[in-house]
Amino acid sequence: MRHFIYILTIAFLVIGCKKEILTEFPPEALQETMRTVDGKNIKFKEILEKHKGQTIFIDVWASWCGDCLEGIPGVKEIQKNNSQLTYLFLSLDRKENSWKAGIQKYNLVGEHYFVTSGMKGAFGKAIGLNWIPRYMIVNPDGSIKLFEAIKTNDEALQNAIKQ
Fold it and tell me: Which end of the chain is least crowded, N or C, by CB within 10 Å?
């Protein structure tokens, strides 16, 4: 009986701790206001609508994040081999000048947005953001094809790009 209770407890913890995998962006994420490089405010929903009909590669990053910086060569390799994708970089930098300097320093090619509320804001909470970088693939219809990858060589990310 003791063995059964132990197994039941472990099963409950594993099932209870599973992260939800989203296939659509929650309303809170869609309503998040982000800033463009030229200082204009735009809702995440508008960014996605602007690219409706395209497959989008999203890189949630920050210039202070060591893992994000380690991932940049992998992102550039993906870009080199997948020019058909639209590349969005969503920065969680603490200051806009650090974000803009990071774009220049690392020569990041794509569209850039500053998440004004940071990692713990509405956008981060809505997508369960607990680590960066976070790579996502969005289908042409706006649904989420790949919800989470933290490495550019992640097999799920590579498969989502190819399909």
Answer: N
CA angle 85, 47, 70 (to 5 degrees): 55
Give the pLDDT confidence of 92-134 residue by residue, as tens digits: 999 999 999 999 999 999 999 999 998 888 999 999 999 999 9
Amino acid at position 99, single letter:
W
What digits encode the pLDDT tens for the residues 46-65?
Answer: 999 999 999 999 999 999 99
Q: Which helix (H) or strand (E) holds 80?
A: helix 66-81
Sign for the CA dihedral angle at 92, 96, 100, 102 comes to negative
Q: Supply 8's token pair.
A: 């039941």
Residue whose structure tokens are 């369960």: 128
Consecutive H or E run containing 12 = helix 2-16
Q: Which amino acid is at 4?
A: F
Global confidence as pTM: 0.86
